[in-house]
Specification:
2 domains, five-stranded mixed beta sheet, 7 strands
Length: 144
């Protein structure tokens, strides 16, 4: 057999169509690659609470989440880098001072400014942007 490979798949637009479940064909491809000895991992900017069970249930070897902040391989967390509370508070103070809306993601959930929540609610209702719609669904499901 050829050399073993490590395959990293993004979720939205690569492994799945945004806001949809993985297709059986995509899921089968992951299983086949693993059966042939290759390692297949998710690589996403999403934090773990919003990586859907439909995606995780396919059976990956690991996940690189939060743009590299959190890494799990074979069910073991090998990296979980968290900003200190003091740094977060300083950032929030500056963001609010300049009217910047923000969204803070953690392993426990997502925390969104009230103003940003209002914007997402109104924008998702009139726009067909899949990312805005996904963020709105996260709000509605009370992820944070």
């Amino acid at each position: 057999m050829a050399d073993k490979k490590i395959v990293f798949l993004d979720i939205d637009g690569t492994f799945t169509v945004p806001l949809e479940k993985p297709t059986e064909l995509a899921s089968m491809a992951v299983r086949e690659a693993r059966k042939n000895g290759h390692r297949v991992l998710i690589s996403t900017g999403r934090n773990m609470p919003i990586v859907s069970e439909d995606v995780l249930g396919v059976g990956f070897d690991g996940v690189v989440a939060s743009a590299g902040r959190h890494i799990e391989i074979d069910g073991k967390v090998i990296r979980d880098s968290v900003l200190p509370e003091e740094t977060i508070q300083k950032c929030l103070k500056i963001f609010h001072q300049f009217g910047i809306y923000c969204r803070i993601e953690s392993q426990e959930g997502i925390y969104i400014d009230d103003s940003l929540q209002e914007i997402l609610t109104s924008a998702a209702a009139v726009l067909s942007n899949s990312e805005l719609i996904r963020m709105k669904r996260e709000l509605d499901s009370d992820v944070g």
